[in-house]
Amino acid sequence: MSELTTVAEGDELPPLTVQVTRADLVRYAGASGDFNPIHWNDRTAGAVGLPGVIAHGMLTMALAGRFVTGWVGDPAALRSYGVRFTRPVVVPDDDEGATLELSGKVKALTETDGVRIAKIDIVAKFDGRTVLGRAQAEIALPG
User: What is the pLDDT of residue 2?
Assistant: First the structure.
């Protein structure tokens, strides 16, 4: 029996830590077509008032989504997902990059057409501060 069949409100997802490097930003820029220089050039980022090069918001969102779908084990189980971008993830020009800490909790369980749905509140933190607000996903749990 899968441990997901016994999921209850209040259960916490196993936390995940992800390192985001400048190389990741370059790969994401190539995949997404978003080559805005605030994601790779310190001078440009500083000129627009940023503390340094920042990760793409959609990359941060994708990593948080991967956290939830990794927990359930099936990307197709994602029913809905939304966030608000609250703070940037500043990615230094070194080999370590930025540390993104992801955690989550089952806020509610419902059933629709015989499918159990878990509403997950997601917390994404960089440097001890939340970077995604109102981050929430709905996941179809395995039967």
Answer: 59
Token pair for 63? 């990593």
Residue 69 covered by a domain? yes
DSSP annotation of 140 reads E
d(CA 106, CA 28): 29
CATH number reported for the structural domain that contains residue 65 in this entry: 3.10.129.10
Percent above pLDDT 90 for the chain: 94
Give the HSE-up count for residue 31: Cα atoms under 13 Å, Cβ half-sphere: 10
| 67 located within any domain | yes
Distance of alpha carbon 4 from alpha carbon 100, whole angstroms: 25
How many domains would you assign to the chain? 1
CA angle 138, 15, 64 (to 5 degrees): 45
pLDDT at 3 > cutoff 90: no
Q: Which amino acid is at 32?
A: S
pTM: 0.93
pLDDT at 1: 40
